[in-house]
Amino acid sequence: MPVARPESSDSRVIAHVDMDCFYVQVEQRKQPNLRGQPTAVVQYNNWKGGGLIAVGYEARKFGVKRSMRGDEAKEVCPQIHLVQVPVNRGKADLTVYRNAGSEVVSVLSKKGRCERASIDEVYLDLTEAAERMLAETPLERLEAINEEALKSHILGLEMDGVDVKENVRNWLVRPDADRRDKLLACGALLVAELRLQVLEETQFTCSAGIAHNKVEYTILYFISLHLCPTENKCLSISLFLGFKQILAKLASGMNKPSQQTVVPSSSVTKLLQNFPIKKMKQLGGKLGTSIQTDLAVETVGDLLQFPESKLQELYGVNTGTWLWNIARGISGDEVEERLLPKSHGAGKTFPGCSALRSIPAVENWLKELSEELSERLQSDLVKNKRIAQSLTVHASAYKSSDNDSHKKFPSKSGPLRYGTAKILEDAILLFQAGLREYLGSHNLKTSGAHDGWGITGLSVSASKIVAIPSGTRSISNYFQTQDNNDVSAKETNERFDLAGAATSFHSESEIYTEVHFTEPDESPKKEKEGSHALRKCGLVDSGTQTQQASQASIFYETEPTLARSMSQQDGFAQETKPSSSGARACSNADYNESEHSFHSGEFEHNIPKEPKTSTSKQKGRILSNEALTPEC
DNA sequence: CATTATTGGATT
DNA sequence: TAATCCAAT
């Protein structure tokens, strides 16, 4: 539930920066010939042309929409360039976009507190910078104003036809403005600079809103979403909100991306008055719906009539006050300093007939997912000196036999051990625990026998990430929860020596850092599993169960970067891959969405991936070719 | 079971 | 801490 933080007469300067059709921009930077062309990014091309996850502005003019299928997009815009999301290990790989997002963050985080809100969005708290600017340079005497700042849209500012920029300039430097407006004006200047800097350093354009808190931004987001593409929508929304002039103005500027908009507090009340309640952040779901029905409220303005006490008794004290404040554009939501994600996850869905129906099929996919996750954890460790402590496996499933077919598949989690093989091993155990519970009394019998169940989604994620304080040589201290008995700190130390052996080298355009972990003399082999924490959780059945503390005991295996992975992983694969042809043959679900089968010429292929030589993958290719049905 | 893949946050 | 749900993009 939303929690209200007491806060009023808020003079912060909060900006929200949102990349324009980010994935498309990333692809266009990679292939500059796509610039100016109608372009969309699509993933998985073998079913109805794949799903669009980003649509460029040129393509939007043709009515191409996000989450159309590639085929539909082609229908309305035959010239469209469809770029595939990179596929690795049989699944979409968003790494390039994550990295591009990081580039942007590193520019935007220079002027104030910065919160990475998603892969392509950040919040900035520019209060201090704005105050400084105001103190140093009284706006009235500001000579050179960034051209970009002059293009700002000021909500509520009447545009009397003449020179728009002059109008904006006047607003920005208006001597009789109150302090809060002046701060916003400074914010607008700062953001203009930042956006230019982003463009210079990354070649990406972005749009931004500047307001006194996070909530006000919601409005901008709504407006930009709905006004952006077409004139028609623009008109209807304008009428709907009753702000024809302002919004029309805004809309005309929205033709091109790369805009910024200021929300002076004087404009907030009017804007919120007719703002649809369901579009407010946090109210898009059930709470929003119940407010609509309980109170017959359609817009934020409608909420104003209800006293705080009434809202509190209906929705609880916290949510009640939160609502009361929101209706008045008041929000104490802080911008959290956070440049890095709090968790990593790799997942894939297996819709329709692609559902996984055998344990080996599931294990194969868990392997792919675990590899990706491990790679990302490794990179996070090296780049950011952070360690994840918890591993979670989620699945969704159906059960056709039992009438109870819509039972939820339980998620399972436990301590995370580093190393691809360890992660896979634990992921499999967690999955099996989930499956047993899911199937209840059903005995899963032998590995391949599917008893009317199917897995329609799988994901493996890592969370509880903690930083290793810089200057620390050993990390063991940062893992253990108080009770640790059988794995001594000393032993863990021996296994992981971060600062000790870090070297870096260049490779193409990227910089990799290689960290050598010291291997324990006697490698912890299978026997070591007896002490694994999962056993303690009862997730594996073993007679020889060693008593084990619940601490996150982490065994680092050496993780070199490129070439090595083959031998090691293949070795492991053989170990874990329970069955071969038999079980595989019965499952067309095995690798049914591999990247090899696209319709030639229909897509702009993403940099031909180097043949990822993995035995499992090759087997998968062969299999999927014969197992693929036209629809599937 | 065809809006996928990820995130983050809150509740219990 | 684990599991579950919800919301957002």
From TrEMBL:
Keyword annotations from UniProtKB, A to Z: DNA damage, DNA repair, Magnesium, Metal-binding, Nucleotidyltransferase, Nucleus, Transferase
Annotated Pfam families: IMS, IMS_C, POLH-Rev1_HhH
Main location: nucleus
Protein origin, superkingdom: Eukaryota
InterPro entries: DNA/RNA_pol_sf, DNA_pol_Y-fam_lit_finger_sf, DNA_pol_Y-fam_little_finger, DNA_polymerase_eta, Rev_trsase/Diguanyl_cyclase, UmuC
Cofactor: Mg(2+); Mn(2+)
Annotated region described as Disordered, given as residue ranges: 562-632
Localization in the cell: Nucleus
An annotated GO BP: response to UV
Domain named UmuC: residues: 14-284
Biased composition (Polar residues): 564-582
Biased composition (Basic and acidic residues): 593-612
Gene3D superfamilies the record matches: 3.30.70.270, 3.40.1170.60, 5' to 3' exonuclease, C-terminal subdomain, DNA polymerase, Y-family, little finger domain
EC nos: 2.7.7.7
UniProt GO molecular function: damaged DNA binding; DNA-directed DNA polymerase activity; metal ion binding
Catalysed reactions, semicolon-separated: DNA(n) + a 2'-deoxyribonucleoside 5'-triphosphate = DNA(n+1) + diphosphate
Record family assignment: Belongs to the DNA polymerase type-Y family.
Protein name stated in the entry: DNA polymerase eta
